[in-house]
Write a structure and sequence with these properties.
The chain is mostly helical. It is built from 21 helices and two strands. A two-stranded antiparallel ribbon has the order 1-2.
């Protein structure tokens, strides 16, 4: 891989000396190798949303039970937290090499589910591995890409997340549900990542930032899993804890309505707006396509105007669009609002990922990202659909899905204030060779000013 990395191969069993910058060819290869992490991070959840009516009927369960099943499924992302922690000990590459295999096995097993709780158990396992895969993939990409292009590359990676929804929506609209095993067949597609792993992941290199920090002895030594779990709270003993808390709360408040709206839209469209299954699937696919555009625009905006203003714009617009989606009666007026909900509510992911990586030093970056994504963010993603299912069930506090989603959407509005007041701006903040934020360092010509918040600093 000397042509990709710009240097010679390391000796067997050793870590390479980090270089000043990866070649463009290797960065392109890296992006391609990490795309399955983004694609399948939301694949299962999108399918659960898209096929919710069919899964509910297949298992003969009520709306509240479906909502509550999201709790054990989402708990897999919490367990993924501990796998992500290992990336700060053994490296980013080993986690990426093995996690996608576990995900593929459990997603394929989902096709054999015989009741709601076996379905939840298999999906729990899938979420453990894909949660680790995605979290480490974002960290690795952020560490390898130059600051001036980081937002763009993160957006390119994350925009593949809605691709599963696009494919699923097209398949539903085309009548794929009429296959002999129904919705179960959709989960068999998960075998595809095995081909990607076998063909390409062997070319993946360890992060330069991790290698540099390890060579300087800045990383804790490899420890037992029990000790690693204890080390998992290290971020809360450092100055970075306040930044981790602020970004974590943002991830929590954003996850509640986003996961709730996605998880219940097709059910709402079919049951409360009386759209056909094909129409609901088509609307879902169209919205997913708009979310891809949202990722791209978000990546470009955060590199041009900054992370903070981009996040505020996306949050406010997402709330407005969500209210329109679940309150407007006409289906053709609802569609543009649904597309806007996906564009802003899902497309905000690149700027949230930037906050979760750029604010923290290499020694705790994966840990910080795990707390933010797998801890806070996943809590919102788990509770959102569950709360809406309980509130919207017949006889529930609200009694319908549309109003329940609308109420939950309003909860995310405080994000704008938190971002403006408590999160530092990290637009084009330079990183040193170890991947740590350099004090008061921005790239030449960057107009960003420090009055938008203090710059992150290196710890230790």
């Amino acid at each position: 891989m000397s042509s990709a990395t710009g240097g010679a191969e390391p000796a067997q069993g050793s870590l390479p000396v980090p270089q000043a910058e990866r070649s463009k060819s290797y960065l392109r290869l890296l992006l391609i190798l990490l795309l399955p992490a983004a694609l399948f991070n939301s694949y299962d959840s999108e399918l659960r949303a898209l096929l919710l009516t069919q899964i509910k009927a297949s298992f003969h369960v009520g709306t509240a039970a479906i909502g509550l099943a999201n709790i054990p499924i989402g708990a897999g992302q919490f367990i993924a937290f501990f796998l992500v922690l290992r990336a700060d000990r053994i490296g980013r590459r080993p986690i990426l090499m093995w996690s996608i295999l576990g995900y593929t096995i459990f997603t394929t097993l989902t096709a054999a589910s015989w009741n709601l709780w076996s379905f939840a158990a298999f999906q729990f396992g899938a979420q453990v591995f894909i949660g680790a895969e995605f979290g480490v993939a974002v960290t690795l990409l952020a560490e390898e890409v130059p600051a001036v292009r980081r937002g763009h590359y993160l957006a390119l990676l994350l925009l593949f997340s809605p691709a599963g929804a696009v494919v699923g929506g097209i398949l539903v609209a085309a009548g794929f549900l009429h296959n002999p095993i129904g919705w179960h067949a959709f989960f068999l597609v998960a075998a595809i990542p095995l081909v990607v792993v076998a063909a390409g992941r062997r070319h993946l290199q360890e992060s330069r930032a991790f290698v540099a920090a390890k060579s300087r002895g800045e990383l804790p030594p490899k420890r037992s899993l029990r000790r690693s779990i204890s080390d998992g709270v290290a971020i809360w003993r450092q100055d970075e804890r306040w930044k981790a808390l602020a970004v974590g709360v943002v991830a929590l408040l954003q996850g509640l309505p986003a996961a709730g709206a996605i998880g219940w839209f097709t059910y709402y469209a079919e049951r409360e707006r009386h759209l056909s299954t094909g129409t609901a699937g088509t609307f879902f696919a169209i919205a997913a396509l708009f979310s891809i555009t949202g990722y791209v625009v978000c990546g470009r905006l955060m590199d041009r105007i900054g992370r903070k203003p981009t996040a505020i714009i996306y949050v406010v617009a997402a709330v407005v669009c969500a209210l329109g989606t679940f309150q407007i009666r006409n289906e053709w007026i609802m569609l543009p609002f649904l597309s806007g909900t996906a564009f802003f509510g899902v497309g905000i992911a690149p700027v949230l990922s930037a906050f979760a990586t750029e604010l923290f030093p290499t020694s705790v970056r994966a840990q910080a990202g795990a707390w933010i994504r797998n801890g806070f963010g996943n809590t919102g993603s788990v509770l959102g659909p569950a709360i809406i299912g309980v509130m919207g069930a017949s006889g529930g506090l609200v009694g319908n899905i549309g109003d329940s989603v609308s109420l939950i959407a309003l909860i995310s509005l405080p994000i704008a204030f938190i971002v403006w007041r408590f999160i530092p701006e990290t637009r084009q903040v330079a990183l040193d060779v170890a991947g740590d934020p350099v004090p008061d360092a921005r790239l030449p010509g960057d107009p960003a000013q420090s009055d938008r918040g203090p710059l992150p600093h290196r710890s230790g």
